[in-house]
Amino acid sequence: MTAYGLHRAVLFPIDEAQAGPTYEKINSRVLKAASSDSRLLPFARLNPRFPEKAFAELARCVKAGIRGVKLHPRSESFSPAEAEDLIHQIESERLPILLHTSHEKGCRPLEWEKIFRRHQRIPFVLAHGAKDAFLEAIALARRHRHLWLETSTLSYWRSGMIVRRLGASRVVFGSDLPYSHPRVEREKLDLLLSSSERRKVYSENPKRVLGE
Tens digit of pLDDT per residue, the chain (212 long)? Predict the structure, then answer.
């Protein structure tokens, strides 16, 4: 973070060997790391396919100070409908959701539009700008003001399309470390953004998503 000019970072679990119905072990590691370094903002990872466990883990993590939730419909193979009860509870806690989106089944933005329409009190960040479905992500974000696009792992051209068509005021920076790298993602966006747009993408927009 120091080397690449990052003052704060969202931290969340990517995976956990034998996670079972919850990510309790690695969520606890994230919370512990954040408790010892104020630059780190902890997000919990939850699995809606096990609702009772997911609700209990959400309650535990809220009490411990999480700032948001990461949902990954491809890794956990859940549908938008299966996630809705949990999303309703996340919404009641006023927490943002970082949602893995892509062109894969269960991850396309249009599959989630009913959820977005019914849960407008919290921000959704569409990770990776939906990859090959990036035009869908742009269209949905233009219809729903509580959606934000994050462009990690997207090409320079696709990231530029998002910035031009949606506007920098609806884009947030993400590194997707360890799959990508902060330097790669920053240099890509630095080429696309003006100085005022950089302030939005790197600072002002993330603060809005986090309710700051």
Answer: 999 889 999 999 987 777 778 899 999 999 999 999 999 999 999 999 999 999 999 999 999 999 999 999 999 999 999 999 999 999 999 999 999 999 999 999 999 999 999 999 999 999 999 999 999 999 999 999 999 999 999 999 999 999 999 999 999 999 999 999 999 999 999 999 999 999 999 999 999 999 99
Range of the domain at 44: 16-209
Q: How far is CA 123 from CA 24, 192, 202, in A?
A: 24, 24, 17
What's the CA dihedral at 7, 124, 144, 109 to 10 degrees? 120
Domain presence at residue 168: yes
Residue 39 lies in a domain: yes
* CATH value at residue 140: 3.20.20.140
Cis check for the bond before 178: say yes or no (omega within 30 of 0). Answer: yes
Q: What predicted TM-score, i.e. pTM, was given to this entire model?
A: 0.95
- The structural domain count of the chain equals 1
